[in-house]
Amino acid sequence: MIEALLPATAVAVEAFADEPDEPPCPGEEDLLARASPGRRREFVTARRCARQALARLGYAPAPIRPGPRREPLWPAGVVGSITHCDGYRAAAVAPAAALASLGVDAEPHEPLPGDVLGVVTTAGEPARLAGLRAGDPGVHWERLLFSAKESVYKAWYPLTGRWLGFEEAEVTLDPAGRFTARLLVDGARSDGGPPLRALDGRWRVAGGLVLTAVVVPSDSSLFARPDPG
């Protein structure tokens, strides 16, 4: 499902269930030493998805260790992102020659808890959400906004090495399945690329899930796939 939101240069693998008692990849066992059974299962399945996606790019199986903010550390020459929620795990990767960065997120298509909304929105977003709800009450727009900002952060961090708070990106959701995040902080990149001022993404609701994806292209070519139905 999430692959439809990504350019043709990216590879995505997803899973809708965990394999009982699946062991972690050698080299990742210590990461789960204190994990609950549920956390262990989601980690193992999501990392398996990531290795399967990397295999489609020609990479041999290897542990995927976390970085300083728990972000996956990909092989040289690869960008990628991992997401998981109840009943869904996915990973997406792409050659760094094609994409500078990539972020994906999945959330249950359910209302966002009321106490979370005030934390994740900027001043202008609640009014826009109200308008979207009036136009299409079948979409949980607040949850979609949350997911979009998660994808924005996952695309932002590898290029800047800096935290990005929910309040530091103002997202405009398009009912047609796209969104734009205007960055409210300095977008200087650690890789010397052009500063990040806005990030574009896609979204869809399918299978009881909200799915979002953001890519930062390495050149002027962006989405090669048609809009998801």
From TrEMBL:
<feature type="binding site">
    <location>
        <position position="39"/>
    </location>
    <ligand>
        <name>CoA</name>
    </ligand>
</feature>
<dbReference type="InterPro" id="IPR037143">
    <property type="entry name" value="4-PPantetheinyl_Trfase_dom_sf"/>
</dbReference>
<feature type="binding site">
    <location>
        <position position="150"/>
    </location>
    <ligand>
        <name>CoA</name>
    </ligand>
</feature>
<feature type="binding site">
    <location>
        <position position="47"/>
    </location>
    <ligand>
        <name>CoA</name>
    </ligand>
</feature>
<feature type="binding site">
    <location>
        <position position="164"/>
    </location>
    <ligand>
        <name>CoA</name>
    </ligand>
</feature>
<feature type="binding site">
    <location>
        <position position="107"/>
    </location>
    <ligand>
        <name>Mg(2+)</name>
    </ligand>
</feature>
<dbReference type="GO" id="GO:0005886">
    <property type="term" value="C:plasma membrane"/>
</dbReference>
<keyword id="KW-0460">Magnesium</keyword>
<keyword id="KW-0479">Metal-binding</keyword>
<protein>
    <submittedName>
        <fullName>4'-phosphopantetheinyl transferase EntD (Siderophore biosynthesis)</fullName>
    </submittedName>
</protein>
<feature type="binding site">
    <location>
        <begin position="83"/>
        <end position="84"/>
    </location>
    <ligand>
        <name>CoA</name>
    </ligand>
</feature>
<feature type="domain" description="4'-phosphopantetheinyl transferase N-terminal">
    <location>
        <begin position="28"/>
        <end position="94"/>
    </location>
</feature>
<dbReference type="InterPro" id="IPR008278">
    <property type="entry name" value="4-PPantetheinyl_Trfase_dom"/>
</dbReference>
<feature type="binding site">
    <location>
        <position position="105"/>
    </location>
    <ligand>
        <name>CoA</name>
    </ligand>
</feature>
<feature type="binding site">
    <location>
        <position position="106"/>
    </location>
    <ligand>
        <name>Mg(2+)</name>
    </ligand>
</feature>
<dbReference type="Pfam" id="PF01648">
    <property type="entry name" value="ACPS"/>
</dbReference>
<feature type="domain" description="4'-phosphopantetheinyl transferase">
    <location>
        <begin position="101"/>
        <end position="187"/>
    </location>
</feature>
<feature type="binding site">
    <location>
        <position position="154"/>
    </location>
    <ligand>
        <name>CoA</name>
    </ligand>
</feature>
<dbReference type="GO" id="GO:0008897">
    <property type="term" value="F:holo-[acyl-carrier-protein] synthase activity"/>
</dbReference>
<keyword id="KW-0808">Transferase</keyword>
<dbReference type="InterPro" id="IPR041354">
    <property type="entry name" value="4PPT_N"/>
</dbReference>
<dbReference type="GO" id="GO:0000287">
    <property type="term" value="F:magnesium ion binding"/>
</dbReference>
<feature type="binding site">
    <location>
        <position position="105"/>
    </location>
    <ligand>
        <name>Mg(2+)</name>
    </ligand>
</feature>
<dbReference type="GO" id="GO:0009366">
    <property type="term" value="C:enterobactin synthetase complex"/>
</dbReference>
<dbReference type="GO" id="GO:0009239">
    <property type="term" value="P:enterobactin biosynthetic process"/>
</dbReference>
<dbReference type="InterPro" id="IPR003542">
    <property type="entry name" value="Enbac_synth_compD-like"/>
</dbReference>
<dbReference type="Pfam" id="PF17837">
    <property type="entry name" value="4PPT_N"/>
</dbReference>
